[in-house]
Write a structure and sequence with these properties.
heterotrimer, A alpha/beta (389), B mainly alpha (271), C mainly alpha (294), A: 389 residues, alpha/beta, 10-stranded mixed β-sheet, globular, disordered N terminus, C: 294 residues, mainly alpha, two-stranded antiparallel ribbon, 1% strand
Amino acid sequence: MKRLILMVAALALLAAACGDSGTDTTAAPTTAAPGTTAAPGTTTAPGGPCEEGETDGDLVLYNWTEYIDPELIDAFEAEYGVGVTEDFFTSNEEMRSKLQAGAAGYDLIVPSDYMVAILAEDGLLEELDTGAIPNLGNLDPTFTGLPFDPDGTYSVPYQWGTTGIGFNYELGEPGEDFPATWGLIFDPELAGDNSGLITLLDDSRETMGAALKYLGYSLNTTDEAEIQEAAELIREARANLATFDSDAFDDLLVAGETLVAHGWNGDFFAAFDGASTDDYDAYEDYGYFIPDEGGVAWVDNMAIVADAPHRCTAHAFINFILDAENGAALTNFNFYASPNAAAEAMIDPEILEDTSIYPTDETFENLEFIADLGETNALYEQAFDEARS
Amino acid sequence: MTTRAGLRPRGLMERLLAAHGWVVYVFFYAPIALLVVYSFNTGNRVNTFQGVGLRWYRAIGENEPLIAAIQNSLVVAIVSTVVATVIGTATALALERFRFRGRRAYDAVLYLPIIIPDITMAAMLLVFFVQVFQPIGINLSITTISISHIAFNIAFVAVVVRARLAGLDPVLEEAARDLYASRWQAFRRVTLPLIMPGVLAGGLLALTLSLDDVVITSFVSGPGSTTLPVYVFGLVRRGVTPLINAVSTVMLAASMVLVFSSLLLQRRRGT
Amino acid sequence: MTAPGTPATPGLERAAARATARRGAWLAAPGALYLLLFFLLPMAILVVYSFGTRTATGRTLLEGWNLESYRRLFDDVVVRVMWRSLWLAVLTTVICLIVAYPFAYYIATRTARLRNLLLVLVMVPFWTNFLVRTYAWRVILGRNGPLSTVADWLGFADVRLLFTETAIVIGLVYGFLPFMVLPLYASIERMDWTLLDAGRDLYASGWQAFRRITLPLTMPGVIAGVILTFIPSFGAYVTPEILGGAQTTMLGSYIQSQYLGVSDWPFGSALSFVIMALMLVGTVIYFRTGARTV
């Protein structure tokens, strides 16, 4: 009896540990568990082309929180007669970890620019069947051929925006009453004035990026010394921080719990809008600015997970979002800028004119996109993890 | 115990202890009272009162994912409690009343699910399910959640029942056997009633642990099989509305009804 | 256990013993098999992982076993997080013990009816979702919360406990106090009060009676309570996540970020197992030196 149990256990263990290595090709270092998919460079044999509007079951969408209008989801469900299940993540790395662990069942994900490159290299993304996405033509040409996915093989732009500082007007006007700098968080003196009332994003590339920009470096540097310097800065800044938060940083600001918050522009504006009532305009109490040293500009994209159970429905969803009206509804909901040229006509003019949402060319010069740094990615992640623990 | 009343702490000590008791109860209930009060807030923000009403209670009914999560929670809790209580009780009996090879080792192993950090158990179960279950077609779902809950609940139930068993004098069971009761009869009519409080306590603990579990469930649940605590955790981290307050008030009311009705039942049976 | 009428043949006795042992084994089998398949096996897989390496993209490479992850356990970061978690867990346990003992004693010395009612009243909050109770503290401890308002009245400027270590301890104490109260109560309630009576007869003062009679007699309850409170506090994840801030990463969060953030499964696994091993050893030692279980 005992021997039988031991044998079964050993067999299972063996199967688990070695089971999947066989499917890897030599293009990538042989990886074993967890979760294997085809190696990079090889085409995942798709289940055949999808027709426009074809669906194959309910969609499972893995998205950032508060990023899509529930009404849009309802509209999609109604138009295509399928259900949509949503799951949420708060950082690219979390999403990547879940995918790598093999949490199967996700069809459509919304990774940021650099993460698309990482996921594609890891073989986690499926090649898009552009025939099923005729609305691709709606995209603004500036958003085609982006460096992380030059041929648009794996991704379609979703929304884009900037990362900066949301603040309480109690502090005054940025640039006049206080310097519009990342020093508000990283300079011991400036931060000390608001000690315990500051939050940073819990996001390795974003927060390290802010620190690097403050120090005057590129946020895509591969110089180890610079990276460590940034990590050190973050560790010291903790003394004045309330917490690291990528979820509720906007709510904390609007609730008066914090005065300075590192975060994404659209999230802030959506929160300000949500807090405003007929008698009260939250925009008088709270604002957003991009520090003088510059910051991050980013593009989030829709991508389909390799071996997604419902890839055709996923394609249909991408096409649905690219529709001019839906693209406009998206922006009007989450206050982020749309890469959809055709949607512009239907976007709320106040949003179009807001330079915090649609930055001027001048501002843009100071901004950098986060890039995939290959091996150095891990360095950023680990340095940040240590700095924040 | 007649002597106990005579040994009650007197005078000042008694008053101090009573006062302390009151303070502790206030400590226990203040946050809950706050939760309940704010659940009637019709505004969006949780700390500022904007009006009184049942808005958020109605919202519960309209929130499909929430209702699905509640259903999932209940199913998982009941299934895992029943299975774990049965297996856990059997295990406790085996360890406490019998000697067999590997008993010591089993004893030690039984403590592992109790001392293991939730995260670790979550990660290892995730890897296990993905590697072993998914290839044979069982995806992350209520099934995997239930399996996980049973795993840690067996240990907790076993510990509680063992504690009860340890306090029992085996003389009673022996007496039953002396009176020619078969082993099964002795078990059913003597042992089982005697350990029943322990079994119930263990079952209750298992139920609570299952309903409260966040970390393990969030790792091993697939999209669409969320349980209530995982859903609430997501809400708490994202931006809070009094919806959570309303949900918790309902849960509180439900559990109070459950507890008091079971107390009444016990009184009636004259335990 | 002497059966009535000891058999003359030792062989028969041994056969009976073996039969009993087999029955015991059968009883224990379902639990053993279940835990073997759904606990030990997954644990073994993770142990294997702890010897692996993290690839550049966050996957786990199993070729080339190494002890790198274990070596990293001595890094400053890890030591810092461990000490912080240990300190907060100890603090929580001590506070729980000090608060719970008089409380349990009080309940145990009421009349039977009152006792049951009081116990139920302790359990009821325990019955609301743990998460939700912790979240209530987030509201209370916030900058605009009730606690802050009261502190303002009393003249303390700008008190904000949220996102501090104090907040975590409050949350942990609140969550685990019942775990301390119940075993203590069980132990105190079962105490042989005649011994206390005898002590009084021998002119022991209240305090002496407590120190020399009550406390030692209720030690099993104390031990059980301490273990049930310390262990979950040490590895706590939810409470520090909700109430803690930038200064206070605890072990649970740290391990979680290894699995789901940095995606370094070998390191996360190595850390988890060392913690588990330490706690197992600690528990065993504590049990042995402290006496019988409750």
